[in-house]
Amino acid sequence: MAAWVLGVIGGSGVYDIEGLEDPRWTPVDSAFGAPSDAILSGHIGPVKLIFLPRHGRGHPLPPSDVNGRANIDALKRAGCTDILSLSAVGSLRESLAPGDFVVVDQFIDRTFAREKSFFGPGLAAHVSMAHPVCSRLSALAAAAARAAGARVVEGGCYLAMEGPQFSTRAESDLYRSWNCDVIGMTNMPEAKLAREAELPYASVAMVTDYDCWREEVAPVEVHHIQAVLAANAGKARDLVARLARALPANREPSPIDTCLDGALITAPSAWDPAMVRKLSSIAGRVLAAKPGEPT
């Protein structure tokens, strides 16, 4: 029987997971540089859980300095089968209030200062991002969030901005005109990298504020969102525990598990051996299956 190994990436305010059996912080290495922190591993019932604080414990890393490639590579090397992302966001809709949890299903990526792919010169690949999240894990996460007491909205478009500054009023109005629902600084290129790593990914975006588009409300400032962050973090930890306990005993295969099939476009004879070694965890399944692999 296939077992779940649930990877959890904690966002602002979520720097650890309570209730883990046999918890252990372990430093990790990656071929793509330093991850945000050590990983916290343990069990919740029969499910192994691997936790990584996206900004590091104590939040030393701003969004643009989060090494998404190293983080996803580290989780893949740790044996994760699926990834749950938790992140703080601003609302671009009147109907999405601070404290709400949005299980997003689409993204618009407006980041520009980050490495967005594991692949590159010497080993090129293209994966589909038409449906960027795992519907199975997203539905399970939504149910767990409701059980944790959160008001949950299933479906929504997440606008990923570079940051670290918040939006201008003109930007906020523009993103609303694009039918975006929430705005944050961290889910991209994270979701793209998870897809390249063949890891089903679900994103629970926890609303802390209304960004700056509401004329009758003061523009968002960090001190305005601290109380909401604290309340969201408690529910997020409860969500993780409930999700782990609700996972089916047997993990059925996901189409995302094999999304690199047919994605490599570089001919095996032109593969860069250094890239092959670097991608041993991310793409080892398909690299090993290709004839003529460089040595």
Descriptors:
21% strand, Rossmann fold, 26% helix, 295 residues, alpha/beta
What does this structure look like?
The protein is of the alpha/beta class and about 300 residues long. About 25% of the residues lie in helices and about 20% in strands. Strands 1, 2, 3, 4, 5, 6, 7, 8, 9, 10 and 11 form an eleven-stranded mixed beta sheet that branches. The longest helix has 25 residues. The chain is globular.
Number of H/I helices: 7
Under CATH, the homologous superfamily reads Nucleoside phosphorylase domain
Integer count of domains = 1
Number of strands: 11
CATH fold group: Rossmann fold
Order of helices and strands: EEEEHEEEHEEHEHEHHH
What fraction of the residues are assigned to beta strands by DSSP?
Answer: 15-25%
CATH architecture: 3-Layer(aba) Sandwich
Poorly predicted residue ranges: none
Average pLDDT score: 94
Q: If you compute it from the alpha carbons, what radius of gyration comes out, rounded to the nearest whole angstrom? A: 19 Å
Oligomer: single chain
Estimate the helix proportion, in percent: 25-40%
**What does the overall shape look like?**
globular
Q: Mind summarizing the main beta sheet?
A: 11 strands, mixed
- The N- to C-terminal Cα distance equals 34 Å
